[in-house]
Amino acid sequence: MSRFIVSPHAQGTQEWLQDRAGKATGSRAADILATIKSGEAAARRDYRLELAIERMTGSPAPQGFISAEMAWGTEQEPFARMAYEEQTGRIVSESGFVYLPDVMAGCSVDGFIDESGSLGIWEAKCPKSFTHISYLRANKLPSAHEPQVLHNMWVTGADFCDFVSFDPRLSGKLQLFTIRVERNEAAMKEYEEKLLTFLAEVDEEHKQLMRMAA
Questions:
Q1: Contact 135, 177 (CB under 8 A)
Q2: Whether the predicted pLDDT of 193 surpasses 90
Q3: What mean pLDDT comes out for the span 8-19?
Q4: What is d(CA 123, CA 110) in angstroms, rounded to the nearest whole number?
Q5: Residue closest to 46 by CA, chosen among 201, 196, 193
Q6: How many structural domains are present in the chain?
Q7: Could you give the CA distance from residue 84 to residue 178 in angstroms, rounded to a whole number?
Q8: Residue by residue, what is the 3-state secondary structure of 23-88?
Q9: Which of 17, 105, 164, 172 could tie 60 with a disulfide, CB 3.0–4.6 Å?
Q10: CATH number, domain with residue 33
Q11: CB under 8 Å to 161, separation ≥6 — which residues?
């Protein structure tokens, strides 16, 4: 039996947005983990309230501004997948939004990989050339994407994540960067505790709003 449920709706559709409403997602994992020296980080507070409002209204929050860079990344993802498959010989299976049946959390992975019975997730970014080169030179999972990878591995139960950065504007071997992140149970446990604490706070926020509305 699978750990998660797969939505049949295409990414970006209204139905897809509805599936995500009220659930903590990988794209906002950095907000869940945001901290400051004292009190609660604004990003964490705002996301907690956003999820509580989505649960109260039953509707997804309006989507933010889509920059030219973000649109470029979406357009290039299929080419990143083809480049990865050609280089590695692995097949990436696309998937809809996945979510847990008993926890208000889910994620939109860029793909799944089945490697000799081990479940992997595939996460692709197609950033600015300057950023892409910095990923290549560092040769590790970029810190900016660690929360999303951590969340998505926790939700899916994946054994590993192949993180990819792709830039077709560059030449030869500079176009594709791939780094594998193996599952770390200690990190999974630590993230689970922080996520469940956050979700309990969302529950309480939701209850407070409902009491105020009564």
A1: yes
A2: yes
A3: 88
A4: 5
A5: 201
A6: 1
A7: 8
A8: CEEHHHHHHHHCCCCCCCCHHHHHHHHHHHHHHHHCCCCCCCCCCHHHHHHHHHHHHHHHHHHHHH
A9: 17
A10: 3.90.320.10
A11: 120, 121, 122, 123, 149, 152, 153, 180, 181
Q: Can you read off the two tokens belonging to residue 17?
A: 């947005």
* pLDDT tens digit sequence for 46-62: 999 999 999 999 888 88
Q: SS3 sequence, 121-164? A: EEEEECCCHHHHHHHHHHCCCCHHHHHHHHHHHHHHCCCEEEEE
Q: Could you give the 3-state DSSP secondary structure of residue 5?
A: strand
Q: What tokens appear for 182 in the block?
A: 């193996």
Q: Which of 123, 90, 91 is nearest to 107 (CA)?
A: 123
**Can you tell me which residue has the tokens 């599936």?**
19
What amino acid occupies position 179? I
- Residue 115 CB partners (closer than 8 Å, separation 6+): 90, 160
pLDDT for residue 63: 76
Question: 114-149 pLDDT, tens per residue?
Answer: 999 999 999 999 999 999 999 999 999 999 999 999
C-alpha to C-alpha distances, 167 to 5, 113, 135, 178, nearest whole angstrom = 32, 22, 11, 12
Tokens of 192: 């689970």
Please count the other Cβ atoms lying within 10 Å of the Cβ belonging to residue 134: 14
Q: In this structure, are strands 24-25 and 98-99 parallel, antiparallel, or unpaired?
A: unpaired
**What are 70's two structure tokens?**
């973000």
Total residue count of the chain as it appears in this document: 214
